[in-house]
Amino acid sequence: VIISSVQRHARHSFFWQFVFHTYTTAFTLVNGNGTPKSEEYSLQQKQLLLGLGAISYSACVGALPLVFMNRYTLKNSLMQLVVRKLLPAPLLGLTSAFTVAMVRSPEFDNGIEVMDRNGKVIGVSKKAGEKAVMETALSRAVLFGTTFFLPEVLMYCVQRARFVKNPRALGPVRMFVIMSVLAGMLPVSFSMFPQCGEIKRADLEPEILSSTEETEFFYNRGI
Question: How many structural domains is the chain composed of?
């Protein structure tokens, strides 16, 4: 996150964004819901191919602001602020959510296990899988989008107020701010939705409801 945020060249930005999304995609693969099974194809191969495509696409999208800056010299200070400082944050948030949705797409297709209050598996639900993936993608978007956006705002205020007199000290200050925001946002993003998610009876498929009278069901959301 730190290295990606300080890049000024599109090629370098693409490389570090690729590294960043590779790490987050691997994290998503390891910490997703393990329910989906398929006999028609290798699930691991499908997830790896989807992950590689998502990583490449996200790295290209993340480098677009710098490509635009390098290709077209923008003299307007407002445009420079938007393209260089403000645009990367929502892009990183959106691409982080996109990689989660792509890598965990088998949970959309095949569903995940839902349980009753006692932990007994009632069935496999695609709607629960969709809910789990969307919640995880949203929490990931908030985590990295905020971690990119908030330090830029804070550093802008620091520079305007002239809190740091020595220009050479801005780099370490920026690194400290990014690390502080990231450390603070980690527990916030993890606590946005419970690890053991809950889904109402009315939101499940009829074939699951026919086998039980329970009104509340639970599932493993993943991280």
Answer: 1
51-85, pLDDT tens digit by residue?
A: 999 999 999 998 888 887 777 665 666 677 777 77
**3 state DSSP class of 77:** helix
Q: What are the pLDDT digits (tens) for 114-125?
A: 998 888 899 899
| Apex 14 CA angle, 87 and 133, nearest 5 | 70
List of residues 6+ apart from 77 with CB closer than 8 A: none
State the residue for tokens 């980690």: 186
Closest CA to 22 of 70, 69, 45, 54: 54
Domain span holding position 33: 1-220
Q: Provide the β-strand partners of residue 114.
A: 123
User: 71: part of which helix (H) or strand (E)?
Assistant: helix 43-71
Task: Pull the structure tokens for residue 196.
Answer: 């053991």
Give the pLDDT score at 97: 95
In whole angstroms, what separates CA 152 from the centre of its chain? 19
Other CB atoms within 10 Å distance of the CB of residue 105: 17
Q: Report the predicted TM-score, pTM, of the whole model to 2 decimal places.
A: 0.86
Cα-to-chain-centroid distance, residue 136? 8
